[in-house]
Amino acid sequence: MHISHRKIRKPRRGNGNLELKESLSSMVRKTSGVPLYVQVRETLRGEYSQLPPRTAIPTELELIERFGVSRITLRKAVDDLVVDGLLERRQGKGTFTSVPKLTHELNAISSWTEQLRALGYNPRTAQRICNEISPPRRVAHALDLEPAEKVVMLRRTRLVGAEPLSLMTNYIPSRLVPNFIQESEAAESLYEFLERRYSLVPERAVDTVETRSATDEEAETLCIEPWSPILVVTRLSFLGDGSPLELATAISRGDRYQYRVTLHGRARVDRNGLAE
Questions:
Q1: pTM for the complete prediction?
Q2: What CA–CA distances, in Å, run from 48 to 45, 87, 100?
Q3: CATH number assigned to the domain covering 16-97
Q4: What's the confidence (pLDDT) of residue 10?
Q5: Sign of the four-CA dihedral 123, 128, 134, 139
Q6: Which one of 30, 71, 161, 236 is most buried, counting C-beta atoms within 10 A?
Q7: What stretch(es) of the chain map to CATH 1.10.10.10?
Q8: How far is the C-alpha of 193 from the C-alpha of 191, rounded, in Å?
Q9: Are residues 255 and 99 in contact, defined by beta-carbon separation less than 8 angstroms?
Q10: Number of Cβ atoms within 10 Å of the Cβ of 32
């Protein structure tokens, strides 16, 4: 009878169950009919979904040794988890479990502050700039202003905890908000302040959402790498009489923020893009 002299690693004291569990979970069945990368991916998904955000995962070589698969197979499994949002890669640092994204619902008119409070956060403002200016042409056109009219421009960096999340710029016709610069200093929610102080309530809004890479200035403000993906939402809101109230732009970190739209009913569209 042949006796194998392969050295068996003894589990560390107090950690035997963990090592046994990892050993069993590392087994992939090459004859099961399930692709190897799927087996690896789902094993890692089960483990990493239980870890705190920003936890570093083992290196690629460590995972290849653990599962006994090729580099291509391991990368495919990890790539899928990155796409799913469970993991994130940081250049020069490694791969980490992701921080859950904050979700802004776009099915009702609400402020950034109101949305974050509803999620249980206490949002704050930094780098607040508020001036009365002659508006850029696009702003004047969107707000349907007369040639000599001015706007109040409010620019803020919005924080969750100590983390910068969004860079927001709001333009409001000056005639609607007298003494806004002085009186809005302590206001966190713009919509709450407009309603309380001026009885201005947006009744309709049009949001346009796009993605692009951050500029150097935006990346520095939001504490992200240059050229990181960002979400840009431009909102034009209207009062009950149909007149424009505000033009706003919110630039948010793509790794921490997402927008969700709830749709109802089925709209049939013809070949010209018009609803039938």
A1: 0.64
A2: 5, 8, 13
A3: 1.10.10.10
A4: 41
A5: negative
A6: 236
A7: 16-97
A8: 5
A9: yes
A10: 10
